């Protein structure tokens, strides 16, 4: 099958770029002596995940549906990296009964108390990472927070204590997505590392085992100078990359492995608009590049081979319509590509765009579709 | 089952509000003597669509997957309201062979030529609506465009000619979503009506049958004073409503039938943040209210009964995390709802939010879940 045989819109994945992106980070982390626990929230596909590591290797998930799916496909060492809510305890237990080695996270006394009570009641031994806030970006306790020991006090000191026990700390330098220079990302990576290591040390000093120090974001994973004290790195979007990562120079535009195939269905010539059948339902509503140096609208327009067309972006999007225009807004500068032209749109945010599609149409550099890899959504 | 028995996030649909919203528009259009061809792109669910009209009643779709699904559930009179691309011709033909009465749209000579050639080649009789641009919002020809007759000239004059034939015109007043007063919506509705009727008249004067004059958007459908010359109205979001519709006063906040159930999983007290497990994956990245008088962030926070909590909004969203804060940004004004609190978030755009979920959890005003209605996504 050929890209021209597909109905549009469709999600295209270039396998050669996926493999190159994976090799790059794997080599980098091997040099730093730290293992990778890839975040599968971006790909939600066993076919993609197998290219990062065989079933059995550790993974990170953002939903228990991901945990369930990857467990069915042979991955057993699963970190659920969103603060656990009590309405998910029973689901975690079921996954463990089915063979998963689950790890969960939390950042407050109330959650720790509830989980400890559940584990005691159900006679469940469950490793818990305490979430650390290394950058003021989202959840977690700051590394020096007195509450760190209050949270730990609700949990067991080591695995042999049984129940919910303090397996270590986890942090995510989400603010690295907003860095405006490589230097800033390097500094953020060190801040992420140092914060997590400090928090783990405080726990160990207080008598907790805390063997795990888990850090990660795709930007910091690619620019950390040292990861001393860190036991694992999490990253997900690096497998596909996207325009947000390109905007902070973590990848080149040529590294972006995922794109949305769409077709020109009309024009508004006097406005310099090309209308396609790739709207926000296919691209997602993500506008992550709007706060970067170069605003890419809803995505960068490429030809069917994936080569960017000079300064043409998805300027607007309706549910099932994309409006392409020259970046300048000058109508005369839009090349009026004929009706029927196939195009590929590079997305702002690979996680958001891929989530809109039921499958990847896989190519290897060319226009030949060599496989269809299913993916899932929801909870 | 009760809302407290669900894992979060989950999509909640209040059936009583759905029925009330449907009755309101049905009564209104009956008064204007025009029939409804509901757009099922918002609900993508036979269970919801049956509340608007029994299988067999006319529907509008935005994807051929919707056409396929609703045909399987008994709906046969299907208008695919996105300019047809040649890579979808064969799919339309398959749907017709399976019993669908399909209507398609287009707005340019190239598409009309390609479709006419396909229909001639395949001996297919297919009604075509020519898309009219009534408001400069997206696709279509302006009502007075000379090209209107050039497009029609590629097609048959009436059904008995066979092939692709001119069944009429279609327009969508998408600009009505940006109106800032009811008066402006009333004016836009008349502009939409008048433009479509004028274009249809030009076609009839030139000898084309053009029996259909199809108009519609949820705002104009609710405020049109007259629909003389119009044969059908399309609307979709009116079944659920959302904050964008509330922002332009098409509905009250109490009319919004769809919400995302989520759970408080932590806090950042000094920032006045409440962290939940309802992020942009559950809410969508839609920020449609950001250009309205009141920016609702990623949604309005309600208690588990669906009552808005004073001035609490989803101020930020990560993939699986929502950050709730007081609208003012003053940390002291955020009520620190305890970990474990169940909340319901009203969405900016019902189409975008519902698309993120595999099913509706249906309530009837209360907290009792009386049914689970599946829905689908993709193409």
Automatic annotation (TrEMBL), chains A, B:
In its UniProt record, which GO terms are filed under biological process?
A: D-serine catabolic process
Under InterPro entries, the record lists: Ala_racemase_N, D-amino_acid_metab_enzyme, D-ser_dehydrat-like_dom, D-ser_dehydrat-like_sf, PLP-binding_barrel
Q: Which UniProt keywords apply?
A: Lyase
Listed transmembrane segments = none
Residue ranges annotated for the D-serine dehydratase-like domain, each copy included:
257-364
Q: Does the keyword Lyase apply?
A: yes
GO-annotated molecular function: D-serine ammonia-lyase activity
Pfam families, A to Z: Ala_racemase_N, D-ser_dehydrat
Extract the SUPFAM superfamilies matched here: PLP-binding barrel
Which top-level group of life is the source organism from?
A: Bacteria
Q: Which PANTHER family match?
A: D-SERINE DEHYDRATASE (PTHR28004:SF2), ZGC:162816-RELATED (PTHR28004)
Family that this chain belongs to: Belongs to the DSD1 family.
Query: What name has this protein been given in UniProt?
Result: D-serine deaminase-like pyridoxal phosphate-dependent protein
Instruction: Tell me the organism.
Output: Pigmentiphaga litoralis
């Amino acid at each position: 099958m050929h890209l021209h045989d597909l109905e549009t819109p469709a999600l295209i994945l270039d396998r050669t770029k996926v493999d190159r992106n994976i090799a790059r980070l794997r080599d980098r982390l091997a040099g730093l002596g730290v293992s990778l626990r890839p975040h599968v929230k971006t790909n939600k596909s066993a076919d993609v995940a197998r290219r990062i590591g065989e079933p059995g290797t550790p993974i990170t998930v953002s939903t228990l549906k991901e945990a369930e799916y990857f467990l069915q496909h042979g991955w057993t060492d699963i970190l659920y990296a969103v603060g656990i809510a009590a309405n998910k305890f029973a689901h975690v237990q079921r996954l463990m009964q089915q063979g998963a080695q689950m790890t969960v996270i939390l950042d407050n006394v109330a959650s720790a108390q509830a989980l400890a009570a559940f584990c005691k009641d159900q006679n469940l031994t469950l490793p818990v990472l305490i979430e650390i806030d290394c950058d003021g970006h989202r959840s977690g306790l700051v590394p020096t927070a007195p509450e760190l020991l209050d949270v730990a006090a609700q949990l067991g000191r080591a695995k042999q204590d049984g129940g919910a026990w303090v397996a270590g700390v986890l942090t995510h330098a989400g603010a690295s997505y907003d860095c405006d220079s490589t230097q800033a990302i390097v500094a953020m990576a060190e801040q992420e590392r140092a914060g997590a290591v400090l928090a783990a040390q405080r726990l160990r000093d207080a008598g907790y085992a805390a063997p795990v120090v888990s850090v990660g974001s795709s930007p910091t994973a690619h620019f950390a100078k040292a990861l001393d004290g860190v036991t694992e790195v999490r990253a997900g979007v690096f497998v596909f990359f996207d325009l947000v990562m390109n905007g902070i120079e973590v990848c080149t535009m040529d590294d972006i492995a995922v794109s949305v195939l769409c077709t020109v269905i009309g024009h508004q010539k006097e406005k310099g608009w090309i209308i396609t059948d790739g709207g926000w339902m296919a691209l997602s509503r993500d506008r992550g590049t709007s706060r970067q140096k170069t605003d890419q609208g809803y995505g960068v327009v490429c030809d069917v081979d994936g080569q960017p067309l000079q300064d043409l972006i998805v300027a607007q999007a309706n549910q099932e319509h994309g409006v392409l225009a020259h970046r300048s807004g000058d109508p005369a500068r839009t090349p009026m590509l004929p009706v029927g032209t196939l195009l590929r749109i590079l997305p702002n945010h690979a996680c958001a765009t891929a989530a809109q599609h039921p499958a990847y149409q896989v190519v290897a550099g060319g226009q030949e579709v060599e496989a269809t890899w299913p993916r899932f959504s929801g909870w």
